Amino acid sequence: MSYRVRLTETAKQDLREIAFYIADQAKDKGIARSFVNELRVSCNRLTDYPQAGALPKDHVLRSMDYRYITHKGYLIFYTVDEPEKAVNVLAIFNARKDYLRVMSRFI
């Protein structure tokens, strides 16, 4: 059964910030747009495989049923809402960031 992918406002803002950062660094809006589209495609793959993501090592995040997938050095954190058959993408950020600090806003 196919799940619906929903991006939270935080995840949408994360994508905007990633796009601005890449556009600034690469001096090319097309590269930024392309990469953000790749991140969206990764998110949309969860429609068929919502449980595919890894469980975080942190016991608090794990106990809250958070999962994550990676794409080219970025982490995509999400939860699965079984009753609604939905995947809620919570945050998208560079894997070099301390994910516990970033995700603490959701705890």
Structure, explained:
The protein is an alpha+beta fold. The chain contains four helices and four strands. Strand 2 (67-71) and strand 3 form a beta hairpin. The longest helix is centred in the N-terminal third of the chain and has 18 residues, at 9-26.
Defining traits:
single chain; 107 residues; alpha+beta; YaeB-like fold; 4-stranded mixed sheet; 4 helices; 41% helix; globular
What does this entry show, briefly?
The chain has 107 residues and is an alpha+beta fold.
Say what the CATH topology is. Answer: YaeB-like fold
Percentage of residues in strands: 15-25%
Helix content: 40-55%
Q: What characteristic shape results from the CA principal axes?
A: globular
Distance from first to last alpha carbon: 29 Å
Radius of gyration: 14 Å
Strand arrangement across the biggest beta sheet: 1-4-3-2
Mean pLDDT: 95
Q: Count of helices? A: 4
Q: Report on the biggest sheet.
A: 4 strands, mixed
Structural class label: alpha+beta
| CATH class wording | Alpha Beta
Query: Superfamily at the CATH H level?
Result: RelE-like
Going by CATH, the architecture would be 2-Layer Sandwich
Oligomer: single chain
Number of strands: 4
Low confidence ranges: none
Number of domains: 1
What's the arrangement of secondary structure elements?
Layout: E1 4-7, H1 9-26, H2 29-44, H3 59-63, E2 67-71, E3 74-81, E4 86-94, H4 99-103
